[in-house]
Amino acid sequence: MDSASKIPPDSVPPARKPKQASWAASMAGGAFGLAGAMAPGLTARLARRLMFRPRRLPPSEPGRGILATARVEPLHVDGQTMYSYSWGEPGPGVLLVHGWGGDAAQMTGFVEPLRQAGHRVVAIDMVAHGRSSGRQASVRHFEACIASAARAHGPFHGVVAHSMGAAAVTFALSRGLQARRAVFLGPVSRYDSVWEYSRRMMNLPPQVMPRIARHAERWLGVTFAEMEPARLAPSMSVPLLVIHDRGDRESPYEDGALLAAGWPGAELLPTEKMGHTRALRDPDILRRAAAFVSGG
């Protein structure tokens, strides 16, 4: 995975109050729409910087308490510091990967079921998330963080990933990440829905979006097609369980169904009334995920 371990530098200055930074909150409204019509090139550059800047939220309970019981280790990813959290004695390791705007605390519901199944558990705060440094992130950044965690704590028996984290794991698997089993919850499999959501949130005219994509691909050094899970799925061989809620408003159920259909041998578990994040705390889902990762 060494060839994929470099991440592009942040291209925005540090915020004075990073935990309150949110492009959606600060830039929503008509300003971008007007600017996009008058100066599409400049608008595309500014919008790209803001679109890849996640907001930070403080870790919620009980996740904060579970993180307090972990062994904490800083890892270095191209000038940024990311934090890893681990539980349990040496054994088959399972990596927990959060999604966009999330953090390791979100994934801690899996710690105890996986430990009871005999696993060592590792969670990470991606760059620009949780305690980790940085202001900008992407699937490319996430993949570099996963590679760093694999070097420090791997090899991993399994991976449990949520939302955009699942997209990053798919990209990481295509770049050489070793894992025997994977569970994805509410995965993103197509970036067109992500782009459209961002466009509406920022009130951008449609004609600006191709410019933003080109700016982003130059910055990242990789095309979105190369990172898109739906395109990568047919080449995958890792046994996969996809858990996706039919009413998920952040990552459409169709994304999970499409990914499972294209991934050889993947299983799809639809849920109801769990939305995008409730499955991360549901006891039955936690047990089923742990059983699948363990091979049962």
Give the SSE map.
Elements: H1 23-27, H2 31-38, H3 40-51, H4 63-67, E1 71-77, E2 80-87, E3 93-97, H5 111-116, E4 120-125, H6 139-153, E5 156-162, H7 164-174, E6 181-185, H8 191-202, H9 209-220, H10 224-227, H11 229-232, E7 240-245, H12 253-262, E8 267-271, H13 283-294
Parallel strand pairs: 3-4, 3-5, 5-6, 6-7, 7-8
Antiparallel strand pairs: 1-2, 2-4
Pfam families: Abhydrolase_1 (PF00561)
Keywords: Hydrolase, Membrane, Transmembrane, Transmembrane helix
GO cellular component, one term: membrane
What is the compact description of this entry?
This protein is an alpha/beta fold. Helices cover 39% and strands 17% of the residues.
Your description of this structure?
It holds the Pfam family Abhydrolase_1. The chain crosses the membrane at residues 23-47. This is Alpha/beta hydrolase. One of its GO terms (molecular function) is hydrolase activity. The chain has 296 residues and is α/β, with parallel strands linked by helices. It folds into 2 domains: 20-51 and 193-226, no CATH class; 71-190 and 228-296, Alpha/Beta hydrolase fold, catalytic domain (Rossmann fold, 3-Layer(aba) Sandwich). It contains 13 helices and 8 strands. It has an 8-stranded mixed sheet with strand order 1-2-4-3-5-6-7-8, sandwiched between helices. Helix 2 (31-38) packs across helix 3 (40-51), helix 3 crosses helix 9 (209-220) and helix 6 packs across helix 7. The longest helix has 15 residues, at 139-153. 46% of the residues are buried. The model is unreliable at 11-31 (pLDDT under 50).
